[in-house]
């Protein structure tokens, strides 16, 4: 390897990817993104498009707005609107060294790892931990925030 290559390799930042719906942002999201950012030099976040949120109610906020808010979080280098149909398109573009799944996300690490290997994408898959409530009334779920809104404003 020539000296130039070695220098180039040193300059390459370690990139992590986190992803999710991020509808109404709460401290649980911030915890996840900070934990994901802690394992890399820069954190890229893929924000899910409505059609790909199939395992729960559709988000109330537009994807672009959800992306803009996540992009403003200090731990995040850049937030990206997810691809409409192929979740590996942004992965191939960002080319992360590690994908950090959320503590309760329905993705199976081994399955995601196998899909990456199949595409020849050299990237680890790990999972973040949960953020426990700091006080009784803390709402750490978008669903529960919406329930509270309906209770009080519905
Ligand atoms: C590796 C990976 C890449 C993803 N890329 C996209 C994408 O390009 N477009 C998209 O709409 N969702 C993408 N997603 C998000 C999923 O579609 C799904 O909506 C999200 O994981 C839901 O997480 P949540 O229930 O925690 O919000 C990706 C998820 C993973 C694990
Ligand atoms: N309390 C929490 N602690 C750590 N991570 C969290 C917490 N809440 C959400 N996350 C993570 O944030 C990411 C995005 O979560 P999502 O957008 O589904 O929000 P949510 O609050 O979990 O939504 P809902 O409660 O409606 O399912 C996921 O990876 C999820 O694991």
UniProtKB/TrEMBL annotation:
Q: In which pathway does it act?
A: Cofactor biosynthesis; FAD biosynthesis; FAD from FMN: step 1/1
Indicate whether Transferase appears among the record's keywords: yes
Question: Is Membrane there in the keyword field?
Answer: no
The reaction(s) this protein catalyses: FMN + ATP + H(+) = FAD + diphosphate
Q: So which cofactors does this thing need?
A: a divalent metal cation
Instruction: State the InterPro entries in the record.
Output: Archaeal_FAD_synthase, Cyt_trans-like, FAD_synth_RibL, Rossmann-like_a/b/a_fold
Q: Where does ATP bind?
A: 21-22, 26-29, 104
| Key words, A-Z | ATP-binding, FAD, Flavoprotein, FMN, Nucleotide-binding, Nucleotidyltransferase, Transferase
Name one molecular function that GO assigns to this entry. Answer: ATP binding
Q: Which Pfam families match?
A: CTP_transf_like
Superkingdom of origin organism: Archaea
Q: Where would I find the Cytidyltransferase-like domain in this sequence?
A: 18-147
Gene3D superfamilies found in the cross-reference section: HUPs (3.40.50.620)
Enzyme category, top tier: transferase
Give the enzyme's EC designation. 2.7.7.2
Q: Describe its partners and assembly state.
A: Homodimer.
| Function description | Catalyzes the transfer of the AMP portion of ATP to flavin mononucleotide (FMN) to produce flavin adenine dinucleotide (FAD) coenzyme.
Q: Which HAMAP family match?
A: FAD_synth_arch
* Family of this protein: Belongs to the archaeal FAD synthase family.
Stated name of the protein: FAD synthase
């Amino acid at each position: 390897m020539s000296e130039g290559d070695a220098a180039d390799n040193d300059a390459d930042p370690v990139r992590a990817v986190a992803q999710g719906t991020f509808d109404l942002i709460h401290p649980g999201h911030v915890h996840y993104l900070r934990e994901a950012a802690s394992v890399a030099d820069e954190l890229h976040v893929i924000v899910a498009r409505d059609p790909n949120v199939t395992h729960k109610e559709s988000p109330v906020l537009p994807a672009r707005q959800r992306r803009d808010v996540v992009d403003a979080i200090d731990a995040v280098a850049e937030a990206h609107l997810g691809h409409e149909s192929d979740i590996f398109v942004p992965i191939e573009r960002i080319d992360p060294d590690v994908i950090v799944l959320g503590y309760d996300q329905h993705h199976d690490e081994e399955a995601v790892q196998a899909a990456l290997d199949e595409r020849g994408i050299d990237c680890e898959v790990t999972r973040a931990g949960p953020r426990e409530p700091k006080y009784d009334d803390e709402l750490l779920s978008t669903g529960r925030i919406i329930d509270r809104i309906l209770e009080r404003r519905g």
